[in-house]
Every structure is written in structure tokens, then in C-alpha cells.
Amino acid sequence: MRPVELVFVVGWAAFWLYWFLAAFSMKRGRVRWSRELRIRAVLLVVAILLVRLGVLRGHGVHTDPWREAFGLVLFVLGLAFAIWARVHIGRNWGTPMTEKVEPELVTSGPYRLVRHPIYSGILIAGLGSALALSWYWLVPVALAGAYFIYGATVEERYLTEQFPDTYPAYKRSTKMLVPFVF
After folding, report:
1. What is the pLDDT of residues 81-106, one digit of tens each?
2. Do 97 and 154 contact (CB within 8 A), yes or no?
3. How far apart are CA 49 and CA 47, in angstroms?
């Protein structure tokens, strides 16, 4: 394993460990599993197939140091943005498409830039991984992007119901995932 690959492995592992531990501090809520289970099951099956088939293994882009460095910068910035958003939202965070018992609308910090900064940060980190390690990593990034757009749409329906006076204006003034674009 090359040193740059080790950095990505350790970085992703540390990020997901933090994510798991931080989940214990969130407010109570519920996920409509019956309604959302299908898409999660399909994505899980696709991810397992990709790993089992070895699609993501051994296909490095053999990049030059500049490409690896730029990918590493995107990776670090993406994870930092996602962590900033997670810390900023605090106990209001939940797994995708969770309905909170006492919801609060957070529109400050990174949520001023995009409505779903955690998703944005993870996708940027994924793009950095693809750039530095292997173009094949664009497959899970695309799957995650599709899931995040779907999840964001479901979450926004719920938020519109919960905050009918404030959420529509916030939605009009702030892009979903990419500032000023989308």
C-alpha cells in the first residue's frame, strides 16, 4: 500500500468512527423504514457486489504527485466541511431521512452555504479519493450522490411540513449541495 493510500484509509476510517460515536448524542427521532428501506437495500446490494467483484481494488490511476496532492486537499476539505456541519447542527443531526421529535431548523454556519453540507462534504471527499487513488471510486461517489439527492428530497418534504413558514424561503435562498449552482 502506497503512503497516499494509507492516508485515505486512515482518514476515512477516522471519519466514520467519529460519525458513529457522534450518533450517540443526537435527539430522538424515527425513520420511516418501511417507506425508505427499498432504496437503502438496493444501494447496499450494489455496494456489496462492487466490493465482492473487486471493482474498486487495484485500479490506481498512477497519478503524478500533483494529482494526488489535489485529491488529498479535496478529501481533507470535504471531510472538514462535513464535520463542521455535523458539529454545527449538534443534537439536531440524524441519520438520513430521520424525523426528529423536537425538530429545529438550522440555517447558520455551513447551512448558510448549502442546505445539506454533510452530503456535500462527503461527496467532495469522495471526489478527492477518486482523483488521488482511482477513477473507479467515482462509482460509489455517484451512488452516494444519487442516495443523497433522494434523501435530501425526502428530508426537505418533511422540513417543509415541520417549518411551513420558514423552510420554503430558506430553500429558495440556499442551494441544495453546491453553492450558487445546485
Report:
1. 999 999 999 888 876 666 777 888 99
2. yes
3. 5
